[in-house]
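User: Please go through the entry that follows and flag anything odd:
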Amino acid sequence: MAGSTFAVVHETPIIWLCILLAIPGFIGWILPWFLYQRIRKKQTENLQPLIEAKQEEIYEICEKGHSLL
């Protein structure tokens, strides 16, 4: 994106270079969002069974404590 900006503010603007350098710049802005979503989904799928197991363990401990009352 910086190269694209420098190409457009040049003494005589080089529009074709601006466009050529802007395309990878926009891809570099947009692509990380999709990668983040994919990684977050994968991590959630990996951690969900562990979270549910811990919640079940806590529930059983609470039931034992309640039966003592």
Notes: The chain has two helices and no strands. The first helix runs from residue 2 to 8. Residues 6 and 12 are 11 Å apart (CA to CA).
